[in-house]
Amino acid sequence: MDDPVLLTGASGRVGQAILGGIADDYEWRLLDREPPTGDHPGEYVVADITDYDEVRAAMEGVGAVIHLAGDPRPEAPWSSVLENNIDGAKTVYEAAVDAGVEKFVFASSNHAVGAYETDERTPEMYRDHHELRLDGTELPRPTNLYGVSKATGEVLGRYYHDEHDLDVVCVRIGNLTEGHPPIDYERGQAMWLSYRDCAHLFDRCLRADYDYEIVYGISDNDRKYYSIDRAKDVLGYDPQDNSAHFEGEERVHGPEA
Amino acid sequence: MDDPVLLTGASGRVGQAILGGIADDYEWRLLDREPPTGDHPGEYVVADITDYDEVRAAMEGVGAVIHLAGDPRPEAPWSSVLENNIDGAKTVYEAAVDAGVEKFVFASSNHAVGAYETDERTPEMYRDHHELRLDGTELPRPTNLYGVSKATGEVLGRYYHDEHDLDVVCVRIGNLTEGHPPIDYERGQAMWLSYRDCAHLFDRCLRADYDYEIVYGISDNDRKYYSIDRAKDVLGYDPQDNSAHFEGEERVHGPEA
């Protein structure tokens, strides 16, 4: 990828994990609604993703997009996810197609499929002897309206791939925490994504060839109910971390959501 | 279903097909943005589905909802489907849950999966020797933003079922034409839905027991690439018509989209 990579929502947690690992490997154009608070690689554009003209201008000359921007709160109200996550995603896809972008990486979420975790299945499904594996071919089952908005972003990606030839990969991001997995939180351990695996996975999304894909973004945890086979096979994802390696270590923090 | 049935978009084509068949079988509350133009059964409420308070008032005492209202144009612009079909559907689902409605029938569309009709598969897939059958378990592949909005309505239904115990059936409606199948239009013949089968199918959606379902709404056409097995098994759908029975008859009309 010689052309600049547009990273929306660059100042958020996922954006920081990505830049922490691969800041030096691409020419970046960072976009966020908030101005930068520290050093950053490449250009920085302050823009709202629901403003087509601003997004289209930021898209000029871009080879690939990593679209993270949106309301990240699982409990976000409908009015916000409708505007920021659904209309916002549509605006960014549209601008990408209009600018001739090749690859589009969409940050989806475990909340798009959270309702597979039924009362009957939990907490057993969070443990390493459980056989259930979601693999990205299943229909969404969102636990909240945020998850609905992420599932819609996936469908928008399918449309822009089928009808406008944009190559799209949707990453259903698990539980991203820095340094170590969530403590005393089996669900978070099962879907843990370490910062370095996150950066590596998005690096693969920028380099690999694909048409339209939905993959799970988690480390290679012993406990998991998301398959990472598709990410390995199509993207060449080769995760280094596993939440099981932290079991029994000193518990320095409480559980994180 | 002894309680009234709320029918949104009552004045549209699907609403008229339903009322043409089962007007006398339920106590209806009809809702449409436009005032009635002729006789109609039951109450008639003029309201916009994006207005929660209006919809909630119309929902009072209702046992089941058939939600047809929305922009029906496959070529509808994003601004319209975002407001009328996505935000509108969310408003109607929300009001239904708040009013304690039992069953929700969502009018989805063949356009939610139109992109399975690839250049490589067509027109062979429209013919009766072709083996492809979409059955409602496949991920959406919309051909247009209208189809994206219908896929989103399905996901909203999944959410309101899983998190709010609303029983939901999504009907991916084929090509509804009155009297006879589309002429000289293989795609339309493969997904033809006669008026009487339409009324019968929605009748079954009001009477059957289900949790969350996605079914295809077509007649029992020889040529089909949508399975009607699920509609038969879960809903007791027993279609009477078949577009093949009209082949060779006088062609009184041109093709309809």
From TrEMBL, chains A, B:
GO terms for molecular function: glucose-6-phosphate dehydrogenase activity; NAD+ binding. The keyword NAD applies. Signal peptide: none annotated. Keywords: Carbohydrate metabolism, Glucose metabolism, NAD, Oxidoreductase. The active site is at Y146 (proton acceptor). It catalyses: D-glucose 6-phosphate + NAD(+) = 6-phospho-D-glucono-1,5-lactone + NADH + H(+). Its EC number is 1.1.1.388. The keyword NAD applies. NAD(+) binds at N84, S109, Y146, K150. Pathway: Carbohydrate degradation; pentose phosphate pathway. GO terms for biological process: glucose metabolic process; pentose-phosphate shunt, oxidative branch. Belongs to the NAD(P)-dependent epimerase/dehydratase family. NCBIfam families: G6PDh_Azf. This is NAD-dependent glucose-6-phosphate dehydrogenase. The lineage of its organism: Archaea, Methanobacteriati, Methanobacteriota, Stenosarchaea group, Halobacteria.
